[in-house]
């Protein structure tokens, strides 16, 4: 069935901040994140000091869409049907025979839960964004270290990894100069943050001039949000948006729970009293999509305003905005710039207006395409008993076609098309193919 998406038909345009509006120099930020976690494990929890050193090509291990089987110490790349395509124990790749012996040619035991977008439990952790990925490499190296020194069969270090994450990313860390991450970004923003291209800033202004309501919804706290926005957009960044929401605690911001988090006002980046409702545009903290949508109805004068949301995390942005709020979603997937994995189905349609290719050379990053893990979108499944291998979609690819309206490598890819860009396609995967090969 032919589907159509038009930005011009959207009343509200929302954006995530990190790795969407604000793009990072990935090699530098990945190393900083790894170091911040590793330093905590070594200095606070007594782990092996070898974790503090990294071989130049180590970050090749990092690949979006990996699931960490915590108790077994194994990392898994899943097919769309839940079977295991590739796996590693620690950093060491497992052979096809080892995968068959441990997991068989059947749905992974936790696939039903992970496919429901439950990204973290005591049993597994899903790595789906650049803030998390360096932690995957660290966990794999911890498994290697424990195997070497203790010969463990089951692993219980995850609580220490969670503590490392919380220590470096907690809300008060920016203000307190706690951990390694925030102090380093504050002191050297140019090393880690890319300036927003003029084409994107011009496009944001065009959207507002065309009468669109612009949202910024980020889980980053207001002080870190301010640093990022001032650096990448300029000191006048607040003029680009009608509503700014920080510490949104996504995906909970979107999910329909009985007791929604209230919005809170901010004063000097400190959260103030809870609000019974959201009555006017402005800068807020926490909150929920239901009360936000009530305000959008008032601002647009429509009973059912159409919202599109741009984000880089399937778990925190794309799935919940689509599933709970029924918003259109645009998935920012930088792997589209570098992943040349083939897509077998030829695109069956063309966009009505296809402009805005990525400008300049593709970013030089450590893990657009991992040599160890292969394509983000597809992989080859070996045949059993001399049968021919088959080409299958990954579970990550299936999520794109299920929950995102379109997928693009960056905002530049759509900004030059202006406010009236429209796409028509017979399947969501075909549009992804067009953008990936443009």
From TrEMBL:
Molecular-function GO terms, alphabetical: 5'-nucleotidase activity; metal ion binding
Listed InterPro entries: HAD-like_sf, HAD-SF_hydro_IG_5-nucl, HAD_sf
Keyword hit for Metal-binding: yes
UniProtKB keywords: Acetylation, Hydrolase, Magnesium, Metal-binding
Entries under NCBIfam families matching the protein: HAD-IG-Ncltidse
Assigned protein family: Belongs to the 5'(3')-deoxyribonucleotidase family.
Name of this chain's protein: 5'-nucleotidase domain-containing protein 1
Source organism of the structure: Catharus ustulatus (Russet-backed thrush)
Taxonomic lineage of the native organism: Eukaryota, Metazoa, Chordata, Craniata, Vertebrata
Gene of this entry: NT5DC1
